[in-house]
Write a structure and sequence with these properties.
The structure is a single chain. The chain is an all-alpha fold. The protein has a single domain, classed as Fumarate Reductase Cytochrome B subunit. It is 73% helix and 0% strand. It contains 11 helices and no strands. Helix 2 runs parallel beside helix 11 and helix 3 crosses helix 11. The longest helix has 24 residues. The structure holds protoporphyrin IX containing FE (2 copies). The site of one protoporphyrin IX containing FE has 25 residues, from helix 2, helix 5, helix 6, helix 7 and helix 9.
Length: 225
């Protein structure tokens, strides 16, 4: 089972993830309608790129936007979840040993204690994100079982990774389950809301360009429309 999951299934899931995410990113921009979406990006590329960078950077900065500042509780649990969710899968020592074995390269690796702390933060924040959906009426009315499913799918590799790491009961059971959950997440990502891992950058770039060019960014600079 281990051989199969770290062999053919590893290649399959990682390929679906990479090809699927690139496809989602490209089709996002190709799907924009130059009239409906008021695309003026090509006409003013510099102002557009400045606006895009500003929007992405501000959103990735804790408390960097009005939205983040207005909801401090959400901001803390959002970043508590996302810092680990992005850094641990990429830079965990165990993952990089696997990468080295598979493709002969490895990335920068996290100190094991830092990886543990970030992983715990992901699990605790995921519980709080779920409670927020239950507790706040304005979020609850927008929530369906699909949102809980995505949260569960996202948290599963972290919970099972921890259970394997602390060797709770059978190490190999949790490790196999961990790899299954990790690969399920990779395969599901391009087809679900998890595609936001790349589409966040696409939509922030689009809106940032809009603000940088048309919605005030070039006010008074003699733009024709
Ligand atoms: C650079 C990569 C990523 C960016 C920029 C990003 C950004 C975001 C943003 C902006 C939201 C919406 C927050 C809101 O409701 O206002 C969100 C939600 C979410 N993200 Fe990500 N994300 C990234 C990676 C990931 C990864 C790797 C995972 C899973 C392992 C993940 C799982 C989630 C989940 C489950 C939610 C919904 C939380 C909830 O139920 O409220 N994200 N993300
Ligand atoms: C693609 C297949 C994957 C394989 C083969 C794999 C393999 C492993 C291995 C061997 C460990 C070490 C367990 C130990 O301590 O002995 C581990 C830990 C872990 N993995 Fe994965 N993993 C995969 C996918 C993922 C994904 C997609 C995520 C997150 C989105 C993830 C998150 C974690 C976490 C949080 C830990 C525990 C970190 C800690 O030590 O505190 N893994 N993984």
């Amino acid at each position: 089972m281990f051989e199969f999951l770290t062999g053919p299934m590893f290649w399959l899931s990682i390929s679906i993830f990479i090809i699927g995410m690139i496809t989602r990113f490209v089709t996002y921009f190709r799907g924009l309608h130059w009239q409906l979406d008021r695309v003026a990006y090509r006409a003013f590329p510099l102002q557009g790129l400045k606006g895009a960078w500003r929007s992405i950077y501000r959103w990735l900065l804790p408390f960097g936007t009005h939205g983040w500042r207005k909801q401090p509780f959400m901001t803390v649990i959002f970043f508590g979840f996302h810092i680990g969710a992005v850094l641990v899968p990429l830079f965990l020592l165990a993952h990089n040993m696997l990468l080295k074995d598979k493709i002969g390269v490895s990335l920068f690796t996290l100190n094991p204690t830092v990886a543990d702390v970030l992983t715990w933060a992901v699990v605790v924040s995921a519980v709080l994100l779920a409670l927020r959906r239950v507790g706040l009426p304005e979020v609850r009315i927008l929530t369906t079982s699909y949102d809980y499913f995505i949260l569960l799918l996202s948290a599963a590799p972290f919970v099972t990774g921890l259970l394997a790491r602390y060797e709770v009961g059978s190490y190999s059971f949790w490790l196999i389950l961990h790899i299954l959950c990790g690969e399920a997440l990779l395969i599901a990502a391009p087809f679900t809301k998890l595609s936001h891992i790349v589409l966040f950058f696409a939509s922030r770039a689009q809106l940032g360009m809009d603000y940088g060019i048309k919605r005030g960014g070039m006010q008074g600079k003699g733009m024709a429309w």
